[in-house]
């Protein structure tokens, strides 16, 4: 029965978590530590620390580790613990997968619609503004007044705009050049 409870708990967490892995940590803590008392607050803190240190999204890493820990604490075998971790991981990403799949199917139906094209055209300035706001947050006096930052920005812009270089290559080249400069 714990497997069904794990699945449902992390499925609900996946549905109601907006803003990424760190945003879902408080909901995970509320459900796993407070509501179900599957693990202690100290264990949760350790799990979050380990989840931050391992590659991948912290929310999914936490779900994986919690699924393993909960089934281990209940005396399941190694394979049962692996099943618990896999089930919790699947459950936390499944809502997002379903939403994206639904949006993709909907997009296929409306992509040729004049109303949709008009809506996307109207949203462009907002997306550009959000990207600019994110860039503005990252600007510090150290990098704003440094010539190499402006040179990297100009090179990236010119590469994408005029030479139609794939942005992934521009990001990789910018990272490599930044590593060499700094």
> Which blocks of ≥5 consecutive residues have pLDDT under 50?
none
Shape: extended
Number of strands: 0
As a percent range, the share of helical residues equals over 70%
Average pLDDT level: 90
What structural class do helix, strand and pairing data support? Answer: mainly alpha
Write down the secondary-structure element order. Answer: HHHHHHHHH
- Describe the biggest sheet? none
Number of helices: 9
Short structural summary:
This protein has helices at 2-16, 21-35, 41-53, 58-73, 78-110, 114-138, 141-144, 147-161, 167-181. The chain is mainly alpha-helical and 182 residues long.
Kindly describe this structure.
The protein folds into 2 domains: 2-103, no CATH class; 135-182, no CATH class. It has 182 residues and is mostly helical. The chain has 9 helices and no strands. Helix 3 crosses helix 4 (58-73). It is 83% helix and 0% strand.
Spell out the key features of this protein.
83% helix; extended; 2 domains; 182 residues; single chain
Topology:
Elements: H1 2-16, H2 21-35, H3 41-53, H4 58-73, H5 78-110, H6 114-138, H7 141-144, H8 147-161, H9 167-181
Helix pairs in contact: 1-2, 1-5, 2-4, 3-4, 4-5, 8-9
